[in-house]
């Protein structure tokens, strides 16, 4: 009677912990988690309710991708200190995963916003939009720099900030407004990379929060200066002062096959308006 009242069958114990009883059988076979008793009449495995916290710890560690050998080692040397060290390590790993997932979500949201723009945009329109501040990694360039050198610089920066792949960031180019006002429409001074997980820190370029003129250009990039002339004329007519840099980025590379379908988004800060 005491056996029935104090012990659970393998099926009952497995159901209690929402696992398959074959998992308990395997844990027993490898010596990781033994039953409390073996039924003397039928040889069935029986478990004590008080074994639940130990099993739940094993299941938690498995969910955290701790290997079976590491769990076996912990079970042989079970102590508060050893568990704390193991959990500290896993919490640090989870924190990194959370940062990556947050950055990935921000990247996906940015791509979705670009797709929304593509589906609703008027290529001829020049409008005013509100933007949040962004932290950008920038690379200095000039007219003499080769494409191969630009790739080398971008590669170095992505490695510096531990960016696994370029899809984890948005990137583009910058041209000073002062150059545009002088008619120097090819005076690009920087490439930029926006890495979502970066916070403001020394060495980063801050694209300011506020109002921006936004326009688009499709196709032949040699005609981009004509689009800038239209933007400057619009700003002049509306008595809008432009400042800082023009930020250019492609918004449809992942959904086109032809270069002539490439669309550049142009955004230029407009300080002093609300």
Automatic annotation (TrEMBL):
InterPro entries: DNA-bd_dom_put_sf (IPR009061), MerR-type_HTH_dom (IPR000551), MerR_fam (IPR047057), Reg_factor_effector_dom_sf (IPR011256)
Domain HTH merR-type: start-end pairs: 7-77
PROSITE patterns reported for this sequence: HTH_MERR_2
Keyword field: DNA-binding, Repressor, Transcription, Transcription regulation
Top-rank taxon, per record: Bacteria
Pfam families: MerR_1 (PF13411)
Any one Gene Ontology molecular-function term assigned to this protein's record: DNA-binding transcription factor activity
Name of the protein in question: MerR family transcriptional regulator
Annotated organism of origin: Parablautia muri
Lineage of producing organism: Bacteria, Bacillati, Bacillota, Clostridia, Lachnospirales
């Amino acid at each position: 009677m005491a056996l029935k009242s104090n012990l659970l069958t393998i099926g009952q114990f497995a159901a209690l912990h929402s696992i398959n009883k074959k998992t308990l059988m395997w844990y027993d076979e490898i010596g990781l988690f033994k039953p409390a008793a073996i039924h003397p009449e039928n040889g069935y495995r029986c478990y004590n309710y008080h074994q639940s916290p130990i099993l739940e710890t094993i299941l938690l560690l498995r969910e955290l991708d701790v290997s079976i050998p590491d769990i076996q080692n912990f079970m042989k040397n079970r102590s508060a200190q050893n568990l704390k060290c193991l959990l500290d390590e896993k919490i640090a790993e989870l924190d990194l995963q959370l940062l990556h997932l947050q950055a990935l979500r921000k990247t996906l949201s940015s791509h979705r916003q670009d797709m929304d723009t593509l589906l609703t945009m008027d290529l001829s329109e020049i409008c005013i939009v509100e933007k949040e501040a962004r932290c950008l990694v920038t690379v200095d360039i000039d007219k003499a720099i080769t494409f191969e050198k630009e790739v080398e610089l971008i590669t170095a920066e992505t490695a510096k900030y531990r960016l696994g792949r370029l899809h984890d960031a948005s990137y583009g180019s910058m041209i000073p407004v002062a150059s545009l006002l002088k008619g120097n429409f090819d005076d690009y001074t920087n490439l930029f990379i926006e890495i979502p997980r970066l916070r403001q820190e020394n060495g980063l370029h801050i694209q300011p929060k506020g109002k921006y003129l936004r326009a688009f250009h499709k196709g032949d990039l040699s005609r981009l200066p004509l689009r800038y002339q239209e933007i400057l004329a619009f700003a002049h007519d509306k008595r809008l002062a432009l400042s800082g840099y023009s930020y250019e980025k492609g918004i449809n590379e992942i959904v086109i096959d032809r270069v002539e379908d490439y669309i550049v988004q142009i955004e230029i800060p407009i300080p002093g308006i609300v």
